[in-house]
Amino acid sequence: MKSKRIKINAAVWFLLPYILLFVTFIVIPVIAAIVLSFTNYDSIRTPVFSGFLNYINLLTQDEIFMQYVLPNTCVFAFVVGPIGYICSFLLAWMLAQISKGPRTVLALLIYSPSLTSGVAMAVVWKIIFAGDKMGYINYLLMNLGITDHPILFTTDAAFLLPIMIIVSVWSSMGVGFLAILAGILNINTEYYEAAMIDGMSNRFQEIFYITIPQMKPQMLFAAVMAVVNTFSVGAIGVQLSGANPTPGYAGQLIVNHIEDYGFIRYEMGYASAISTVLLVFIYAISKVAGKVFRDN
Length: 296
Hints:
Layout: H1 2-36, E1 39-40, E2 48-49, H2 53-60, H3 63-95, H4 100-115, H5 118-128, H6 136-143, H7 157-170, H8 175-185, H9 189-197, H10 203-214, H11 216-231, H12 235-241, H13 254-264, H14 268-293
């Protein structure tokens, strides 16, 4: 009993630095944001309690949020999230079929875009979608005779959101991809051998009846990370267009709306209310993902 208590105490001491950092940089800011969301606060004067006024204004008075920000965020999240998630699984599954050397190199190449900041990615893609004759896409379209003048891809409201989706899907193979790859590689090969003996005839059956059921924790982790990443994106649209708000609010996401009110207008109480709504969105979708991939 005494040795068990000593082990528990040792574990607590090892976890203490993480607990302190987590509470300091995650728990306290989240609680502070929730509290400030019920106040009128401009970051200079003392916060004044306003009840649910910020939330009422957000849902009934903020036309930009309801007409542009919320639809843009939903389209962006529900396109980039599932596509990135499916691509992560398919690429991880294909890499698991090859030998270790090429698999390691290809995994690093696929994972590396997610290590690059949104600002750096936007710089690269701004060259590709530049709105003059030197932009790669415009150069190709004009040489093929598809258009006779450059298209302003990153400043045209009709093109900005699709370009943001393309850039985000390209960089979406992050830690979720690595978790899925590790989960596939750790599946006992005896399951596949037994399935072949029982009459399983193709790889699709292996995926649906063996691979996915055997790695539900990794699938859940990747799903949660996909949700968090897609809902927390904001820098790409601003960097591509060079403006916040984005042209015609075409690429305006919830994170951009928070930055607009929090760091440009200094309406910190209202920005905190928007961030709280974003937190609720992420939590709700994560719970749905948890029910889908819960190991019963």
